[in-house]
Each structure stands twice: as structure tokens, then as C-alpha cells.
Write a structure and sequence with these properties.
348 residues, alpha+beta, 9 helices, 12 strands, globular
């Protein structure tokens, strides 16, 4: 099977479906990406226009600055322009910019994670360490139409990295979202679970595969952290778990619902391109693996592995109530592969 198209609204009756119309789909994707890029560029310029020169300087870096790939999701000092330095009007512009690249559900996740940071400050009585205003906006290169530039929104448990190439293509990777508590069990936000679907869909898939005797659980011990950590380059991991050509139709459906939950953190033009890349893979190229307990409330880790994309989730810290999730592109994090092609074409 060369290509696989997953359609959520139609029940799957076979393990594979022919995917037709690739050229037209690529053209539509390219056109829609240009529209998204134009809108993001306009909002970036609008945000910068409400900043005085000193704040613009904090937000701006050269595109080639090594800081562009210095991504982090842990609480630590950061470069860029934090929310706490902004007026109410400027914060509104920063949030509007972020909302231009994220979907509604992605924005809800991000807002909830930032509110959880405030809750942590209350729980730990340390609002300085758990500063819900310590989320930073950064630009790499000048956001102008037809130009190559980057945008980052980052703080504890949030890393959004977007690369624009010649105003024509857009890469959104790596992307990290985490939550602590993963599920709020008491207090003013009781019941909040920012990343519930990322856990529940994966557990349903793992349980189904396990019940059918598939070796989806590759270790009884869960790693304490996502294995690619904050590495600038995501290493290829050992191929473990179950290749999805061994999955049932219902399990394949669950898998792509899970992948979609990650992809659709972004607006549709970005998410559709990410989903198209995953749907185009042969199912035997996609592996799903679980480590730790399948029991709710116990530590677990899972990953979705392909030759190109790696999705990891770990929930082991703080008595298995502290979740980390990441989407990595082995070749094209920060647009590396696309930039390489861009520079090669420019050389001719």
C-alpha cells in the first residue's frame, strides 16, 4: 500500500484505502498555506507596531542566530519578550498573534496550561518560580511578505516554533505542550485536564492492541521523561511496539484520531499538511508503543514512530500527574530540510 487516507467521518472496513488526487491536494495545501502565512505576517507586524524600540529589540533576533533552535520546555531563564513586560494592549496583540497560528482547541490548551502555571504558584506558594507571565515571544528575521523568518512562543510547558520560508511554506515543529497537574484533583480548577485526549485516545489504542495479544507494551517501566528531551535534533529511537499494518481497522482509526489531536493544535492549513504527510505513509512505517502501566492514574509513556515524525508523551513525574507531549520532525524541525532545499535552489 503506497498511500493511506484516513477519513474520520467514514467507518473503516479495510486496513488501507487508496489515496487519489495527490497533485491537486498539494496545490490546495500550498495555496492555503500562503493565506495562513500572509495572515501570520500581518499579525506579527501588527504586534511589533505597538512595541517601543526597546521591546522590539528584546523580541528580535537574526534568522541565523543559534537561539532560534535553542528551544526549551522546562522552567528556566529565556531570551525574547515576556508577557510580563507588556501592557494590556500589547499582551492582547501578542495573544492575537498566537491565535493566528493555533486552532481554537490549540489556543484553549495553551491558555489552560498557562493558567495551570498560575495554579502551581499558588499550590507551591512560589509565584516567582511559577510565573504565568513568563511566556516569551520571539522573532527570527524580519516578518515580511515573501521573506524567510521564524516565530516562537515559549515558556514552561509550552513551545511553539514556526518557520516561514520565502513567504511560501510554513513548518511548525518542534511543538511541545505539557501540564502539571495533568489532572487537577482539588481546588479552584478541580477536574481540569488540559491534555486529556492525548492520554485517553492513546490508552484506548494500547488497551485494544494489548487485549488482542499484540506486543504494544515494550516495558513495564515508564521513562521519567520524553526521550528526545530538549535536544535540538530529535534522534531516531529504537523501533519498538506494534507496526500499524498489524492493527485492526478500529485501531487504525484510533491512531489517526490521536495523531490529529496533536496536529490540530495548529490552524487547519498547518494541521492538514501534517496529517497529509502521516496519512501518506505505509501503515507498516508507523509504530505505536507503550511503556508503564495501562491502569488509569499510573505512570505511562507512549510514542508514535515514523521515519520522519516522532510523537512522544510521558506522564511519570509527580506521582504520574505531570504530562509532557511533543511532536518532532527528524529532518524538518525548525524547517532544516526545507531550508536546505531552499538554499540549494538559490545556488543554481
Amino acid at each position: 500500500m503506497k498511500r493511506f487516507l484516513f477519513v474520520v467521518s467514514v467507518a473503516l472496513s479495510t486496513l488501507s484505502l487508496a489515496h487519489e488526487g495527490h497533485d491537486h491536494g498539494s496545490e490546495q495545501s500550498s495555496s492555503s498555506q500562503k493565506k495562513a502565512i500572509e495572515e501570520l505576517t500581518v499579525e506579527a507586524q501588527s504586534f511589533l507596531s505597538v512595541l517601543p524600540a526597546d521591546l522590539q529589540k528584546k523580541a528580535m533576533f537574526d534568522f541565523q542566530d543559534p537561539e532560534r533552535e535553542n528551544w526549551k520546555f522546562t522552567p528556566q531563564p529565556r531570551k525574547g519578550l515576556p508577557l510580563e513586560d507588556l501592557s494590556a494592549e500589547q499582551q492582547k496583540a501578542a495573544k492575537k498573534l498566537l491565535a493566528t497560528i493555533l486552532s481554537q482547541q490549540g489556543l484553549l490548551k495553551v491558555n489552560t496550561i498557562q493558567e495551570l502555571e498560575k495554579l502551581l504558584g499558588e499550590m507551591e506558594n512560589d509565584p516567582v518560580k511559577r510565573n504565568h507571565q513568563a511566556y516569551f515571544t520571539s522573532f527570527f528575521g524580519q516578518p515580511e511578505s515573501g521573506k524567510t523568518w521564524g516565530y516562537r512562543y515559549e515558556g514552561h510547558h509550552i513551545a511553539v516554533n514556526v518557520t516561514i520560508i520565502d513567504g511560501k511554506s510554513m513548518i511548525a515543529s518542534p511543538t511541545f505542550l505539557g501540564a502539571s497537574p495533568a489532572q487537577v484533583r482539588e481546588g479552584r480548577m478541580q477536574g481540569t485536564q488540559a491534555l486529556a485526549k492525548e492520554e485517553n485516545l492513546a490508552r484506548a489504542l494500547a488497551e485494544s492492541l494489548h487485549q488482542r495479544g499484540k506486543a504494544v507494551v515494550y516495558s513495564k517501566e515508564s521513562p521519567a521523561e520524553i526521550l528526545t528531551a530538549e535536544n535540538r535534533v530529535a534522534q531516531q529511537l529504537e523501533p519498538v511496539g506494534v507496526p500499524m499494518n498489524e492493527a485492526s481497522a478500529a485501531e487504525v482509526k484510533l491512531l489517526f484520531q490521536l495523531i490529529a489531536e496533536f496536529a490540530h493544535r495548529y490552524r487547519s492549513e498547518v494541521a492538514d499538511a501534517q496529517m497529509h504527510a502521516m496519512e501518506s505513509l505505509d501503515l507498516k512505517e508507523i509504530r505505536f508503543a507503550w511503556a508503564g502501566s495501562l491502569e488509569m492514574g499510573k505512570a505511562f509513556y507512549y510514542r508514535i514512530q515514523t521515519p520522519k515524525v516522532l510523537i512522544e508523551t510521558a506522564n511519570s513525574q509527580n506521582n504520574a500527574n505531570h504530562i509532557h507531549t511533543v511532536w518532532r520532525d527528524h529532518a524538518n524541525d525548525f524547517g532544516r530540510d526545507s531550508l536546505g532545499e531552499h538554499y540549494r535552489n538559490d545556488a543554481h
